Amino acid sequence: MALPKKLKLMNLYNEGNSYLGQTGEVTLPKLGRKLENWRGNLNGNVKWDAGLADDINEMTWKLGGIDKLVLQQFGAASISAFGLRFAGSYQRDDTGETDAVEIVVRGRHEEIDFGNAKSGDDTETTIKTIWTYYKLSINGQVVIEIDIPGLKEVVNGVDLLEAHRNNIGL
């Protein structure tokens, strides 16, 4: 029997600034593919791969209170204006083994939700960041790297778009 690796500690960085003790929750980006049905003259449907899913490039995170840096970043002109880095420490409770998981994204904020404001109550700001660059590493090894405007999608060291870039002269 083996126990799963569970998140024990985490931190979020915004342009290198640590939010340790301020980040209540991070909804990490989903990984998804856009698969479309194709039947042709086959006896059933097959799904062809149309690339990344339309809704994967969203990361939502929450901060206690209010943060001036986030507000200063609102309305950024560039699609990859700033970077966020999630650092998580996962551990198996049967063996004690730990893994360092890091997710780096570059993007800009789509939404800043201040929630309810009531004196004496807990306040929390929810930020929705839309990314154009994503990198997932485990124990320092890059597992997935996606650069949407750069037409790169690397999974386990293999760039899935390399042949396509070559085919169009890039």
Proportion of beta-strand residues:
over 45%
SS-based class: mainly beta
* Percentage of residues assigned to helices: under 10%
Mean pLDDT: 95
Describe the structure.
7% of the residues lie in helices and 54% in strands. With 170 residues, it is mainly beta. The chain has a single domain, classed as Pnp Oxidase, Chain A (Roll). The radius of gyration is 19 Å and the shape is globular. The mean pLDDT is 95.
Could you list some keywords that capture this structure?
170 residues, mainly beta, Pnp Oxidase, Chain A, 10-stranded antiparallel beta sheet, 12 strands, globular
Set out the fold topology.
Layout: E1 5-14, E2 17-18, E3 23-27, E4 33-38, E5 46-52, E6 58-64, H1 68-73, E7 82-92, E8 98-113, E9 124-138, E10 141-147, E11 152-155, E12 158-159, H2 162-167
Give a brief description.
The protein has 170 residues and is mainly beta. 7% of the residues lie in helices and 54% in strands.
